[in-house]
Amino acid sequence: MRNWKFAMASTILGSALILGACGGTEESGDTGSETEETGSDTAGEEEAVVEGSVIGDGSSTVAPILEGIVEEYAGAQPDVQVTVGVSGTGGGFEKFIQGETDFSNASRPIKEEEAAALEEAGIEYTEFLLAYDGLSVVVNQENDFVDNLTVEQLKKLWVEDGTTKMWSDIDPEWPDEEIVFYAPGTASGTYDYFNEVILEEEDIVSSATLSEDDNTLVQGIQGSPNSIGFFGYAYYIANQDTLKLVPIEGIEPNTETIESGEYAPLSRPLFVYAKNSAISENEAAYDFMQYTIENAGAMAEAVGYVALNEEDYEAGLADLEALKE
Q1: What is the CB neighbour count within 10 angstroms for residue 205?
Q2: Which helix (H) or strand (E) holds 166?
């Protein structure tokens, strides 16, 4: 499924493939079609054709990485059908536990109860780290008074306390206007993470509009002058011309602050969990997961997240290879 979220990623990776092909043609020089045909035959021998299907689901935050990779993978292995749903981290794990999927995308680590349910279902799995994200707090672009929030103010904003929340409640110098809230749905790993580090397990403000679709949140904030919301950094990057990013404790999320952990406590890892039996028994699942790990760094950076160190991806590939033995 191609849309605006992945246009930048597809352009970058697609250009790299095109440039690589052009470079090969130039090196052929005047040797003509005979050389090109030989090169084509060699490439065909080196790249094994894989057939089959792979099914995944899970986090909307991880979706920009995975759906971008799916699009590029279709060009490399057109005979493999890869389907990726976006039910949220919790919804994805539910399907994973039911045995409906080969992998599950997550914007938080798996919970103890989810791991226990998988064990009871007899499903063994392996966790792969893909990238890092900085959960981003944004307001409407017309907002000219919120230039920073503390963690304490964030909690005061978002915890349900039985009152109608006004901006002046947070800072007396701010307007006496009712705040409009937009947040990820309760099945989202983004919601879970925010609930843990900001709300500290208290109820989220009851007036908030909740949705697992981050695009719905973006559109709501764009259309409401007194709005505030939060979602993954890639969704802010894709809409930065129409949203205002709010620093937390004076720190903005960016590549450097997310990778270093300086953007605390809202920096977080992004994962994919793969079913071990799918990797060992389904050649298409193994090949797609290998392609995912090999390309996750480039795709993460292209869509607005932060790549891991190369050693981390190599460790992931080693873990994947071990599942086939």
Answers
A1: 17
A2: none
**How many other CB atoms are there within 10 angstroms of residue 117's CB atom?**
17
Give the residue from 299, 233, 6, 60 showing the smallest Cα distance to 308. 299
Pick the CATH number of 4-131+271-322 from 3.30.830.10, 3.40.190.10, 3.40.640.10, 3.40.50.2300: 3.40.190.10
CA distance 123 to 266: 31
The most distant pair of C-alpha atoms in the chain lies apart, rounded to whole Å, by 78
17, 19, 36, 261 from 22: Cα distances, Å: 9, 5, 12, 40
- Report pTM: 0.79
In angstroms, rounded to a whole number, what is the distance separating the alpha carbons of residues 210 and 71?
Answer: 29
The two tokens of residue 94 are: 């539910």
* Tokens read off for 52: 């089959």
Task: Calculate mean pLDDT across residues 1-6.
Answer: 38
For range 153-181, the mean pLDDT:
97
Domain with CATH 3.40.190.10 in the chain: 4-131+271-322, 136-252
- What are the E-state strand segments in 102-258? 103-106, 125-134, 136-140, 180-184, 209-211, 227-231, 243-245
Question: Which of the 8 DSSP states describes residue 236?
Answer: H
- What's the pLDDT score for residue 72? 97
CA 108 – CA 269 distance, rounded (Å): 7
- Indicate the residue type of 48: A
Residue with the two structure tokens 């536990």:
97
**Residue recorded with tokens 């920096």:** 267
DSSP code of residue 149: B
Q: 105 has which bridge partners?
A: 58, 272
| Rg, the chain, Cα only | 22
CATH of domain 136-252: 3.40.190.10
